[in-house]
Amino acid sequence: MNSEFLQTSNPRTVGMMLIIIVFLVVTIQVLYLLWPQIKAYRELDNRFFILQQAAVGQDGLEEQLSTTRTEVEELSYQLHGDMAGLPDNQMESYIIGRLQKISWNTDVELASIIPGKGRQVQSFQETLFNVKIHASYFDFFQWLQRVNQELGYIVVKRFEISPIGRQVDDSKPKLNISLILVSYRMVNDG
Fold first, then answer.
1. Could you list the pLDDT tens digit for every one of the 190 residues in the chain?
2. How far is Cα 103 from Cα 122, in angstroms, rounded to an integer?
3. Fewest CB within 10 A of the end CB: N or C in the chain?
4. 103 burial type by CB count under 10 A (0-12 exposed, 13-18 middle, 19+ buried)
5. Are strands 109-121 and 124-135 parallel, antiparallel or unpaired?
6. CB neighbours of residue 146 within 10 Å
7. Strands (E), the chain
8. Cα–Cα distances in Å, from 143 out to 87, 112, 114, 115, 138?
9. Torsion sign (Cα): 78, 82, 84, 88
């Protein structure tokens, strides 16, 4: 029957059938043999790209960690100043010494400092400092800025300002300033 079909058929039809059969065989081979290999190659290439990006990002990761550590240290300094590592029994004398140094550097006369214990606010213990100073307004303002920079998180809880008697030079009047500075420290539960 096959030979009879070939003899009676048009040669064009037989050629077309052969082309279709070859096309189907090639298509089946591509779909079942070659296409899974192409997909696997693409997936591996994608994984390689992701790993390459991660490897490049590793260099930046160490730099980001270093930057983050520096930021944490700066924030800790802003919060605690140099007092972060001080034991409780040295903190009062440290603050008094720093206030004296700041006063000398800002042309403020430090009249008195009286330290005292405050109350516990949540997990923080207050340390109070009743401070009396004599200064001009602008020197006092500069003094407050330096206290904030050097001692970290110190709060002015209360203040009173009054002029010192009659003054000859009214361009920079001296003021009596009484204030209560409060330092907060985490309570150790140990």
1. 566 766 777 778 878 888 999 998 888 887 788 778 888 888 988 888 888 777 666 666 677 778 888 888 777 666 666 666 667 677 788 888 888 999 999 989 999 999 888 888 888 778 889 999 999 889 999 999 998 888 777 888 888 988 887 766 666 778 899 999 988 777 765 4
2. 32
3. C
4. buried
5. antiparallel
6. 18
7. 109-121, 124-135, 154-163, 175-186
8. 26, 15, 18, 19, 8
9. negative
13 Cβ contact partners less than 8 Å away, ≥ 6 residues apart: none
The tokens for 162 are 């009054």
Question: 180: buried, middle or exposed (CB in 10 Å: 19+, 13-18, 0-12)?
Answer: middle
| Distance from C-alpha of 187 to C-alpha of 120, rounded to nearest angstrom | 8
Q: Give me 25's structure tokens.
A: 């065989």
Give all strands of the β-sheet with 175-186 in edge-to-edge order: 109-121, 124-135, 175-186, 154-163
Cα–Cα distance for residue pair 101/151, rounded to 1 Å = 12
Cα 30–Cα 31–Cα 34 angle in degrees, nearest 5: 50
